[in-house]
Design a protein that fits this description.
- Homotetramer.
- By secondary structure, the protein is α/β, with parallel strands linked by helices.
- The chain has 12 helices and 18 strands.
- It has helices spanning about 40-45, 50-55, 95-100, 140-145, 145-155, 175-185, 200-205, 220-225, 245-250, 275-280, 295-305, 320-330; strands at about 1-5, 15, 25-35, 60, 65-70, 85, 90, 110, 125-130, 130-135, 165-170, 190-195, 210-215, 235-240, 255-260, 280-285, 310-315, 335-340.
- The strands form 4 sheets. Strands 3, 5, 6, 9, 10, 17 and 18 form a 7-stranded mixed β-sheet that branches. The chain has a 6-stranded parallel β-sheet with strand order 13-12-11-14-15-16, with helices on both faces. A 3-stranded antiparallel β-sheet has the order 2-1-4, with no helix packed on it.
- It starts with a strand and ends with a strand.
- Bound molecules: nicotinamide-adenine-dinucleotide and zinc ion.
- Nicotinamide-adenine-dinucleotide (NAD) binds near residues 172, 197, 244 and 286.
- The site of nicotinamide-adenine-dinucleotide has 27 residues, from helix 6, strand 12 and helix 9.
């Protein structure tokens, strides 16, 4: 089968031919229709320090996808041939304390598809059936293909009650932009998003941000004054992984504010802890998606009118994957979709 893989320890990926995977008793076999490129795939493409430490080679990468079930293991219940599915890319152990308590997103033994085990950038993907998620007919393939990052945005944004609250999102990458749309959809008052990239800030405005602030040019405090926000933000969502953005966020939080951290900063990033202590901030780390509560919420929000379509900025047949990766690498993109059926 056709697969996009890293065959040598170095930059780039190759479209190659790999054996079709075998389906185990508890697995489903998915024929992939569409995939999307994640920031993680970009790290793997660039072969940066994280990728060199983490990715075994050879590795078939990718974890954002939608496809159709074409084969089912003999122990599998609840799925049928022909079901259109995406799936949770975190494979959890099932026997640690958190897994047994139903908190699978906190499993200490998680492995990632397309990172630790063969991924979705291929004609066929084998997935434990418990990880598959059926997509309702009224949700498009393109949107279903981005449920993984949409889930990161959903898990982070819905960590707190947003109704009537003022929210600051630092980082208008695809996940930050989707989070802005979610905050707007569920009833936040002001949704302010920051970045240093005008293309992405424009996209965030289209998707419902009250203000999209280029912090390399404009002062967040001026925007707050303009919005009549004397006291600060109630909710902060850090979605850049950039230390200065996190520090900026802490500076403008109101006392008693709640902060969720999705962006992955360099290890041992320093902050002013007095901001946390004397403001009585609550800080929550976010990893992945809640299985599967986040997935049900995603479907419900799309079915109740959340419009994420502007984030889907580029589409290519998989043979043109290099152009797709270039679009992501340029920073002038939202989500980039690769079509495996074309
Ligand atoms: P991305 O890299 O596309 O977006 C980050 C954005 O931050 C970029 O648009 C960048 O221009 C912007 N930025 C740079 N400097 C800034 C500054 N000073 N202030 C504000 N913004 C600034 O990433 P993404 O795919 O949208 O993911 C967002 C973050 O979440 C990344 O750090 C990613 O590694 C992380 N992530 C975490 C998880 C998890 O489970 N915790 C899952 C997925 C992604
Ligand atoms: Zn576990």
């Amino acid at each position: 089968m056709k697969a996009l893989a890293k065959l040598e320890r170095g930059p780039g990926l190759i479209l190659t031919d790999l054996p079709k995977p075998e389906v185990g008793h508890n697995d489903v076999l998915i024929k992939i229709r569409k995939t999307a490129i994640c920031g993680t795939d970009i790290h793997i493409w660039k072969w940066d320090d994280w990728a060199q430490k983490t990715i075994p080679v050879p590795m078939q990468v990718g974890h954002e996808y939608v496809g159709e079930i074409i084969e089912i293991g003999q122990e599998v219940r609840g799925f049928s041939i022909g079901d259109r599915v995406s799936g949770e890319g975190h494979i959890t152990c099932g026997h640690c304390r958190n897994c047994r308590a139903g908190r699978r997103h906190l499993c200490r033994n998680t492995v990632g598809i397309g990172v630790n085990v063969p991924g979705a950038f291929a004609e066929y993907l084998v997935l434990p059936a418990v990880n598959a998620f059926k997509i309702p007919d009224n949700i498009s393939d393109d949107l279903a293909a981005i449920f993984d990052p949409f889930g990161n945005a959903t898990h982070t944004a819905l960590s707190f009650n947003l109704v009537g609250e003022d929210v600051l999102i630092t980082g208008a990458g695809p996940i930050g932009i989707m989070a802005a749309a979610i905050c707007r959809h569920v009833g936040a008052r002001h949704v302010v998003i920051t970045d240093v990239n005008d293309y992405r800030l424009d996209l965030a405005r289209k998707m419902g941000a009250s203000r999209a602030v280029n912090v390399s040019r404009d002062r967040l405090r001026d925007v707050m004054d303009d919005l009549g926000m004397q006291e600060g933000f109630d909710i902060g969502l850090e979605m850049s992984g950039v230390p200065v953005a996190f520090r900026d966020l802490l500076n403008v939080m109101n006392h008693g504010g709640k902060v969720a951290l999705l962006g992955i900063p360099p290890a041992e990033t320093a902050i002013d802890w007095n901001q946390v202590i004397f403001k009585g901030l609550e800080i929550k780390g976010i990893y992945g998606r809640e299985m599967f509560e986040t997935w049900y919420k995603m479907v419900s929000m799309l079915q109740s009118g959340l419009d994420l379509s502007p984030i889907l900025t580029h589409h290519f047949p998989v043979d043109q994957f290099k152009t797709g990766f270039d679009a992501m690498l340029s920073g002038q993109s939202g989500k980039v979709i690769l079509d495996w059926a074309a």
